[in-house]
Amino acid sequence: MGQVLDGNQMREASCTEELRAMRDALDILGGKWKLMILRYLANRESQEIYFKKMEREIQGISAKVLTKELRDLELNLLVARPPSEDPIKVFYKITDYGKSVFPVTESLVSWGLEYREKVKQELTALAK
Question: Whole-model pTM?
């Protein structure tokens, strides 16, 4: 169970509090693209990442959806749009707060790789 601050003391969160926290997290991070965008930016932290580059490199995302998702992530303090000397190029970077999501994306990547391998093994066994 998770911990919550109650006054000046930490206590175990109730099931209801945990479910609310999960709902809050899913509201902020949910959808097809937000975690992928955060992972993309975290993996390229030392690079200048501009909008058009993201649009090209994140396969399947449209400019309209990328704009919406980046605005949501910026509103929730997970990404920032630093000032640019070139007004045509819009740069984005992951914030320190956004980096706190990295363990979640790391777990999802690990689970996804394991799941993909398990399915591949099951399909191979069925084909025999």
Answer: 0.79
